[in-house]
């Protein structure tokens, strides 16, 4: 009785609003998923997400594939409900649309921010090569830390996400380092949240498929200290309209990060034990950083890289592309890995970049997957790239 | 043009749903706050939050103060809007209620989970003693890490949040350790999110008001490995109906945490350099742990502690309360600090506990604040407690 009073009283005041009374989403044994919402006054409820067949989004620049939607129906208990088809193993995102108003599922506290949008997530398991790597399994877990470093090149303290593998704290050993870069609109949280980087590393290392390594996830927005809400800007709404985006500042100052990591962690401090990869804008960064500093990285990954020609890329880092590539490839990186989806809007730009490499006879590995410019592909690429490192 | 296409295309596909077109909440120069929502089909929109005068919540066990609500009105552009009174400096939480359906503010990506509820947050600054400590200021920042340890006492790997102060990585020094415990429904994320512990520590240390220290935030739910979504349970909805809650398991196994911390970090390994404090259930835990292990902590903080008598507390840890307190106080802890709000539903239980201490002549410090069992008080208590440690 006393415990009940305490529990109730504490909850009434602590968690200001009570817990929902229904389960949503419910992953059924047959891997269909049921979504539910209590919205008695609503006249239409839809669910939209990447588990549904895509719909075309029209823009002034052409049509892109966007997430589809499906209608919920009100059941005899007044609860809106929809059950999906059987879903393939994957981490999925979704939102509800209630009378035209987009909103989170109030029964699902698991949400991930991507730029200025927050969506609910759920995971369907059953694929040992990919989706099962995104789960937290009962294996030894690495540490995920939010760490600040000083960047003289950018003139400020900035935040990193650093993964150290299980056992790092007490092993006394030195480790190789993998620098992992986000895309436009992302930040130092992107790979550890939507990217499931810590889970993928924990699982691949536990299975003996990847070397224990440190993973450093930077913030590639050169004008910012840290992710939205995590810097002295306070709770300022995120935006992709940032100064110093892809102007060469981030790439030029990248040695600040490497210097900090090598002086703070027990690292193997040579090219053979450093990798760099990134998605979209981070692939662009990885391409330019790895050729600007050709003695720094033996492993380079371009995931759906934003490597089309850009007239506004006039910084020193971007000068003499072909000369710098010649230097980089003369030093024979152990792995230069290019991956892209066959529906990616950057597919043609990557084809042209590969032609440039082919014409020069530079050695790289190419991986083409289905689908477009989406996190599903980047988790797949990370799961495939990590086992190839430092072997 | 190319950059614009890339940006648009990337956004259309990466952040699956577009950014909202309005600003909400907007903290105005006079410290009123304007909330806005685009919901053209709604017939009623309210905002509910702790910045509004409280309303009584009726329960079978009595009335408690809950967050108030206010109505938004549709302006001439079809946007729902409400402007608050001038607000005192504080971190506030709120939600919208759209036609009776509780939802997040889609224009505000800053949200914090408390048990099974997610609410939006915003911060009003201007109080150097409290709210300004909750901000990320341009001062040296400590590292916040999610770290796993093995607990033989609980038979599993479990997760901690560990704050190490700025400079820890390279100073070579040993540091005192403050163990900071959450309440019922919370987890190892609670103090670093709603509690703003890292910000409070960063700021107090930078101002010279607190000693540099390590802060270890445990998970006090003895049946769980980690916070919801962070353990091998996967994306399982959070609940307060957990086995092994306040059954003595967590308290008895607490030396597992101290042993891990002392073997993993550079710590000062004696009573004079260890503190323990907690809110609500964590205050109950701190009281029992500190007397069960009377040579472990010289600083004890009970924040709105859940210390009423409980017939179901039959574990060895709970036996011989008075005898163990006699032993603890005979060893003269340097600080035994009890704090509670004058409207807290645990006020009477704390009064009775203090009477027990008074009757025995045990020395403690008492701090009474306004308000009830709310995070506002716990941030205040943390801001006051930390400067008293390790001096």
Give an account of the 3D structure:
The structure is a homodimer of 391-residue chains. Chain A is built from ten helices and 20 strands. The first copy, chain A, starts with a helix and ends in a 6-residue tail after the last helix. Chain A has 391 residues and is of the alpha+beta class. In chain A, the strands form four sheets. Chain A has an eight-stranded mixed β-sheet, with helices on both faces. In chain A, strands 3, 6, 9, 10, 11 and 12 form a six-stranded antiparallel β-sheet that branches. A four-stranded antiparallel β-sheet of chain A has the order 1-2-8-7, with no helix packed on it. In chain A, 24% of the residues lie in helices and 27% in strands. The model of chain A is unreliable at 1-20 (pLDDT under 50). Strand 13 of chain A pairs antiparallel with strand 13 (143-151) of chain B, so a sheet runs across the interface.
Which terms summarize this structure?
homodimer, 391 residues, alpha+beta, 8-stranded mixed beta sheet, 6-stranded antiparallel beta sheet, 20 strands, 24% helix, disordered N terminus
State the secondary-structure class of chain A. Answer: alpha+beta
The assembly state of the depicted protein chains is homodimer
Number of strands of chain A: 20
Order of helices and strands of chain A: HEEEEEEEEEEEEEEHEHHEHHEHEHEHEH
| Total number of helices of chain A | 10
Question: How helix-rich are the residues of chain A, as a percent range?
Answer: 10-25%
Estimate what percentage of residues of chain A fall within beta strands: 25-35%
Indicate the low-confidence ranges of chain A by residue numbers: 1-20
Greatest contact between two chains: A-B, 111 and 111 residues
Overall shape of chain A: globular
Largest sheet, spatial ordering of strands of chain A: 13-14-16-15-17-18-19-20
